[in-house]
Amino acid sequence: MDDVAAAIADPVRRDILVMLRGQRLAAGQIADRFSISRPAVSRHLRVLRESGLVRDTLVGRQRHYELDASRFAGLIGWLDQFAPATGWERHLDALETEVYRTRRERRRRGSTDQRQEHTA
Fold first, then answer.
1. How many distinct helices (H) and strands (E) make up the chain?
2. Angle (deg, nearest 10), helices 11-20 and 38-51
């Protein structure tokens, strides 16, 4: 989780991740979108690769990058503790509670009905 947090701490790396959302790009295509040097973009891509947020594939002489969003799961889980529950989450929690209560009552009624049948 720490390597992912460190990787997304830089605004250039966050911009690269947004670029890679939903598409695969060659390193040159990524570098062309920045005013910084190609070696600087390359260093940012290396940090993202080492953190596992992007995967690279060599296609001919070009290196293509794609996002691996699964690496965000740990960080998202940790950050989630700070987010207030949304209205939907509260409603779904209430629904879950009601479902369990109803099941419990049906089981109790079922066992009571069976006992009454045996005593009758």
1. 6, 3
2. 70
Contacts of 10-14 with CB under 8 Å at 24 or more apart are: 10/44, 10/47, 12/36, 12/40, 12/41, 12/44, 13/44, 13/47, 13/48
Output the pTM of the full model: 0.67
pLDDT tens track for 74-92: 988 888 888 776 677 777 8
- Cα angle at 57 between 27 and 69, to 5 degrees? 85
Q: How far apart are CA 114 and CA 118, in angstroms?
A: 6
Tell the residue number behind the tokens 């990524």, with chain if given.
30
- Report the C-alpha gap between 97 and 99 in whole angstroms: 5
Q: Map tokens 């794609």 to a residue.
A: 66
